[in-house]
Amino acid sequence: MLLSPTSFTCFSKKALPWLMVICVLFFIVGILVAVVFSPEDYKQGEIAKVMHIHVPAAWLSLAIYCLIALLSFISLVWNNSVAAILAYSAAPAGVVFSAICLITGSIWGKGTWGTWWVWDARLTSMLILFFLYIGYLALWSSFFNKVRAEKSAAVFAIFSAINIPIVKFSVNLWSTLHQPASIIRRGGIAIDKSFLLPLITMFMFCITFFLVVWILHFLFLINSYKIKREISLRY
């Protein structure tokens, strides 16, 4: 099974060099097409280029928390500690991506709305997601017994994942300054190819960067976690 310590560690070490190379390539191409070749928006001007990091960061923030919730479910149902460590390994990246989303969104909002922040449904639910990441990590550090820590954090992740569809559909359910979806929507993609290509390229960079950081964090944790878990099981 892939989610055994030996199998996943071996797979991770083999995949890591390739992911690093792909990540660097996507970064170089993404920066070129997003900053140099991407045109100005006819309404917003240069500030619209913030979308090339803001939107991928938002997508990754939601996707990583879904991944954490799924791995937490696996860890609870099948008592799989590797799934729990994988979930924990992904959380710091989720904090960073959600912070990037909030910061770049504020910059974009200042340029388009004239204000850094508004308490509307999308921004507020995204801020809640950031604090959910913090809460999840805090639970892991709140117990000396690592078995109790992983189970408590897993339950928290599963139930708090209800915020993900709230973030996603907040622009459709409530009145908000934030624009509705432009790509995953009824009626097809509503964004020009000159913006779509850089957006997808930067998204691929963010995905590969996350995978590299995730694997590195997992490999670091798996060795120390074995010792800590063995100690905690004695008490």
Count of helical regions:
7
**Major beta sheet summary:** none
Helix and strand element order: HHHHHHH
The best one-word shape is: globular
Number of domains: 1
Radius of gyration, in angstroms, nearest whole number: 19 Å
- Uncertain segments of ≥5 residues (pLDDT<50)? 227-235
Give a count of the beta strands, DSSP E runs of length 2 or more.
0
- Percentage of residues assigned to helices: over 70%
Structural class: mainly alpha
The span between the termini is: 30 Å
Quote the beta fraction: under 5%
Mean pLDDT: 84
Task: Explain what you see.
The chain has seven helices and no strands. With 235 residues, it is mostly helical. Helix 3 (81-112) runs antiparallel to helix 4 (121-141). The longest helix has 41 residues, at 193-233. The two termini are 30 Å apart. The relative contact order is 0.16. Residues 227-235 have low confidence and may be disordered. Its main location: membrane. Required for the export of heme to the periplasm for the biogenesis of c-type cytochromes. It is a multi-pass membrane protein. This is Heme exporter protein C.
